[in-house]
Design brief:
The N and C termini lie far apart (38 Å). The protein is globular and about 50 Å long. The strands form three sheets. It has an eight-stranded parallel sheet. A two-stranded antiparallel ribbon has the order 1-2. Strands 6-7 form a two-stranded antiparallel sheet. α1 (34-47) links the parallel β3 (18-19) and β4. α9 packs across α10 (273-282). It is built from twelve helices and twelve strands. With 330 residues, it is α/β, with parallel strands linked by helices.
């Protein structure tokens, strides 16, 4: 698989990564199987998808334990990215950016991941009660201590800005400008896909201008862009899509033209709609690495295959002309 470089630290990863969250968190519990998920991680590594993206809150903790089982055997082949800063309770999630907590969280992640060093340590969310510079400073100390190689910021939860009448990523960019004064940001993780293109407006250009890598979260639109979901199929209550405004039966039906358009391009390339959706993300810049989530071996292999799909200018123009997705988080 082609390699891509993340940030000024020149961290090399496979062009397509693996999002490990669905193996332990946010999707249907009844379909989460540890041994099958472990095979999925190994399959991804076999294909050259070296970036394994996890977080301490996924499970919580169980996702890191799962990834750690694979790292124990294949650490030299993997690039591990994990996150800190969120605590999971019975019915709530709260941010914790206190320096002491961040350092303890890192040590705990290292134990679960069975590794001596985390390649990319990301701040999952900034704590509104703690100046982000203090949190970032504590994370920088982890780099100095050799526990972490590089730092990143996760901006997946940025939609509150829009509800307040501001641009989707304005708040994230302000945070980035502040923490860049403390220690270099190597990567930013944010949603980017054919049906969620907002990062192209300001956030991705901001990162590209500064040599900061961009990890594209949810590049397959939580599975919708794969073309394998049926409008009205329903989701189990513990599946995040059961509460997602784009996954009502009406919105899934209304957004089918996106899948039809991707399938039309895919047929010309002998590919799948998912592979075209990922190839579109890859075409947005050499610093962009999609991290599609997968918990089945065949999906990880198929996703890795997107790295060899070369979209033409005409393909990209056709995809750009597809209708905007209907439904939103607001």
């Amino acid at each position: 698989m082609d390699r891509r470089t993340i940030g000024a630290a020149a961290l090399e990863v496979g062009a397509v990564g693996l999002g490990c969250m669905p193996m332990s968190w946010a999707y249907t519990d009844s379909r989460q199987r540890g041994e099958e998920s472990l095979r999925t991680v190994h399959a991804a590594l076999d294909q050259g998808s070296t970036l394994l993206d996890t977080a301490d809150m996924y499970g919580p903790f169980t996702n890191e334990l799962l990834v750690g089982r694979a790292l124990k055997e294949r650490r030299a082949e993997a690039f591990v990215s994990t996150k800190c800063g969120l605590l999971v309770g019975e019915q709530h999630i709260v941010a914790n950016g206190r320096p002491g907590y961040v350092k303890r969280a890192c040590d705990a992640s290292l134990r679960r991941l069975q590794t001596e060093t985390i390649d990319l340590y990301q701040l999952h969310r900034a704590d509104p009660e703690v100046p982000v510079e203090e949190t970032w400073g504590a994370m920088a100390e982890l780099v100095a201590a050799g526990k972490v190689r590089a730092l990143g910021l996760c901006a997946v939860g940025a939609r509150a800005s829009r509800r307040e009448g501001r641009g989707l990523h304005e708040g994230t960019i302000r945070q980035l400008e502040r923490i860049q004064q403390v220690f270099p940001v190597s990567a930013v993780e944010a949603e980017l896909s054919v049906w969620s293109r907002e990062a192209l407006e300001t956030l991705l250009p901001w990162c590209a201008a500064r040599g900061i890598g961009f990890l594209a979260a949810m590049p397959l639109g939580n599975g919708f862009l794969t073309g394998t979901l049926t409008p009205g199929q329903g989701f189990e209550p513990d599946d995040l899509r059961a509460r997602h405004p784009r996954f009502t039966a009406e919105m899934m039906a209304a957004n089918q033209p996106l899948v039809v358009g991707l399938r039309r391009v895919a047929e010309r390339h002998g590919a799948t709609p998912a592979q075209v959706a990922l190839a579109w993300v890859l075409a947005q810049g050499r610093d962009v690495v999609p991290i599609p989530g997968a918990k089945r071996e065949r999906w990880a292999v198929q996703n890795a295959g997107a790295a060899v799909v070369r979209l033409t200018g005409a393909d990209l123009a056709e995809i750009a002309a597809l209708p905007s997705a209907m439904g939103s988080w607001e």
